Amino acid sequence: MWRAIAALLAVIGSDAAPLQATSSGVKPFKIDLTGEASRMLELVKATRLPNKPVYPTVGASAGIDLDVLKQLQREWIHGFSWKGEQKELNKYHHFTTDLEGLNIHFIHERSRDPNAIPLLLLHGWPGSFLEFVPLIESLTQQSKTSNGDPVSFNIVIPSLPGFAFSTAPKENWTIADTARIFNSLMTDLLGYEKFAVHGTDWGSGVGYSMYEQFNSTVRALHAPFLPFFPLTEEQLEAANVTLSPMEQFQVQRGDDWYATGNGYFIEQSTKPNTIGLALEDNPVGQLAWIGEKMIEWSDPRAGTPPSVLNHQEILRSTALYFLTKSFTSSAFIYFQNPGGFRSDYVQPPTDAPLLFSSFKYNVGFWPAQMVRRVGNLVYYQSHEFGGHFPGIDNPPALLTDIREIGRFWA
Ligand SMILES: *[C@@H]1O[C@H](CO)[C@@H](O)[C@H](O)[C@H]1NC(C)=O
Ligand SMILES: *[C@@H]1O[C@H](CO)[C@@H](O)[C@H](O)[C@H]1NC(C)=O
Ligand SMILES: *[C@@H]1O[C@H](CO)[C@@H](O)[C@H](O)[C@H]1NC(C)=O
């Protein structure tokens, strides 16, 4: 009860801006890429795409559809303003800090609720901090879990090393190294004694590594994706996992993705410099490479409510990679983490709660029986709408599930 009263007083008693980190070594940061953005637009305009596809009947099965790419290019030229995007993004509190010699960028937004749970949100590839922007305000505001308990969050959204405004790490840097510096960011720099983590894609790899390495500070993990190879239909059968029709669909989608959608994975794991340098100064090339993934890995209804994964989102995500010159360095996360996905589903040395959200159109599927093997699973929820980027593909569902952390927070 005192929690609820204190929280209420905090909400009604404060019109001031939320407190921000004042820790030494943490510097406020504003995005300013307008100079580069005008050159980017010139390059987009100068790029000539073919008038018609070589094989019109293959559609998107052979890679990004030419008509879609041309439409995106037209929208980039006539209906997209980096300056406008930047202005929106600069409404949030951005910072940079030095961690083990890396300049790390992050957004830090504090709730007015003194009992707010510190929450670290981790993106993957081809994601960025942009994936979580639709959630920031709602997460910081006081709300309720499904039990009716009050819940709110202090939000920290870093850019992974080598992504956006965070510098590229040294040669053999792994996600376990990123886990270490992010634990230090939350505790030593920002002063949170314990915190929760949400991670997706490579961010779930970093988040899971934090979950197992730092069991006294990481006191909850929420994920829609896991750094474990999903089981095939045959393997699930052998493990006596029975599947609902929707789950059967999800297994099939994962198997299809593995058969036809992971060429990029092998390229970035083995020759990141080739694809990186080929596209580093080519915004429409990056649009084709990144846009294909954003379209293919999300719900076919993407861009219609509740999804905000529309063409503007694809354009600003690509522009962020291009303007921060991080396309090549970001691709290296695959090369640097050959062991990033594991086959052995075993319990890690932690008793912290694990919460999992399964989105129908994600490219990997993990049934509750398997998730339970890799952590203290306390919550598992399936969603019929959404895919690999739930922060933009189904933000209300992700928000509801993240808030459930409040039920298990001690
Ligand atoms: C990185 O790892 C490779 C393979 O193990 C090794 O050959 C190389 O010397 C390492 N580089 C650095 C800078 O440690
Ligand atoms: C699956 O179920 C069968 C029949 O109940 C049992 O013999 C087998 O050991 C089970 N397999 C696993 C991996 O649990
Ligand atoms: C937490 O990790 C330590 C090692 O750092 C280990 O000794 C301890 O058993 C772990 N706690 C749990 C609950 O697994």
Provide a brief overview of the structure.
With 410 residues, this protein is of the alpha/beta class. It contains 18 helices and eleven strands.
- Counted beta strands: 11
Task: Give the N-to-C terminal Cα separation.
Answer: 15 Å
Q: What is the count of helical runs?
A: 18
Strand order of the largest sheet: 1-2-3-7-4-8-9-10-11
Indicate the proportion of strand residues.
5-15%
Q: Please state the CA-atom Rg, rounded to the nearest Å.
A: 21 Å
Helical percentage:
40-55%
Mean pLDDT: 94
What structural class do you assign from the helix and strand content? alpha/beta
Low-confidence stretches: 1-21
Order of helices and strands: HEHHHEEEHEEEHEHEHHHHHHHEHEHHH
The biggest beta sheet reads: 9 strands, mixed
The hetero compounds bound to this protein are: 2-acetamido-2-deoxy-beta-D-glucopyranose
Principal-axes geometry comes out as globular
Organism: Stachybotrys elegans
Protein name: Alpha/Beta hydrolase protein
InterPro entries: AB_hydrolase_fold, Epox_hydrolase-like, Epoxide_hydro_N, Epoxide_hydrolase
GO molecular function: epoxide hydrolase activity
Can you describe this structure?
With 410 residues, the protein is α/β, with parallel strands linked by helices. It is 42% helix and 15% strand. It contains 18 helices and 11 strands. Strands 1-2-3-7-4-8-9-10-11 form a 9-stranded mixed sheet, with helices on both faces. The chain has a two-stranded antiparallel ribbon with strand order 5-6. Helix 15 (368-371) links the parallel strand 10 (353-359) and strand 11 (376-383). Helix 6 crosses helix 7 (202-213) and helix 10 (263-270) crosses helix 11. It is globular, with a radius of gyration of 21 Å. Mean pLDDT is 94; it is low at 1-21. The structure holds 2-acetamido-2-deoxy-beta-D-glucopyranose (3 copies). Residues 215, 349-351 line the site of one 2-acetamido-2-deoxy-beta-D-glucopyranose. It holds the Pfam family EHN. GO terms for molecular function: epoxide hydrolase activity. Residues 26-132 form the Epoxide hydrolase N-terminal domain. This is Alpha/Beta hydrolase protein. Residues 1-16 form the signal peptide.
